[in-house]
Specification:
Elements (H helix, E strand, L loop, with lengths): L1 E6 L4 E6 L1 H21 L4 H15 L6 H10 L6 H13 L24 H10 L3 H12 L4 H5 L6 E2 L4 E5 L5 E5 L2 H17 L4 H7 L5 H4 L4 H16 L7 H14 L5 H8 L4 H7 L4 H9 L7 H6 L9 H6 L7
Antiparallel strand pairs: 1-2, 3-4, 4-5
Length: 330
Amino acid sequence: MTPVIVHHNDHFLIYFIMAESHLQWIEEELESFKLKLEAAGLSKETVRVYVYYIRKLLEINCETPQKTLEVFFSKERASSSVAKAAVLNYFKLMGAKVQCVLPELRGRRRRPLKVCPKDHVRDVLKVLPREDDRLIVTLAYELALRNSEVTKLLCQNVNTQFKHINVYGKGDSKRVLPLSDDLNMVLSNYLKRYRNKFQYSDEIKKKRQDWLFPMVAQLKHPDAHFRYIMERSARYLGLDSHFNPHSLRHGKANSLYESKRVDIFVLSNFLGHVRLDTTKRYAHSSLKTMRDQIIDSDKSNSLTRSFLLKEPNEPKTDSEETNEPPISKD
């Protein structure tokens, strides 16, 4: 007999059922939870992670729901804010009013976002031998694309006639991004060579979905290939170890922000952010910008110039102090 936590209308109950029924119930519960997550508009990766954590939760057998949660969050892989979010969404979507107290978890410490300068991107493009890898890096920087967005682009997403590209991001959200004349010409020439070079049969072409980068998209983990070429190029050029595909996105966003020609709301739509707070994390101020806008603009009214750099007065002698006229009280 195995104790299992199942949801009821208002609270959780403990039932003792056979192991086979227990496993069958878990699969049915996870399938229902997965369908509700997808209906809520969450991305495929978020759904996969949430289902993984809830599976671990339901496989724990304890006397009470509170004890089950304590054991779950005490595990190493479950001690994160993502696990807590998975449990909260499970309680919310499955319609359960839980009388349990979730443990206080320390929030994930956000590391400072790494920015990739344009000069480093040029250096990387010089050392990459393959044309498709160079184009992947160029698109990721110029359009500030995520790793999965650029590696899974389709040929039909590119419209060279009207100079725009359709990008599908998190949660299958779509955004249309403009192409510059130079980038549009590069993509147009690449597509012409691609059409002539890659002549697949209908079956293979349907399987590959006419990828823009078929040699990368057919890999088991195309995202890992992009990270690999970036890290390998960084080691070859002696760049920062945090030089990764997402640093290209940060670099482009920061460059647009510092140009002062792009509104923060336009930048948010360009990056595909739902919340403006997320875009603000991408808006860094470089040392050069702070020097230009703060130090140089405050030179005329600098406290250092008016006080600290002023020639100090010579100390007065005792005779001079005694000969000074008294201050009048009038």
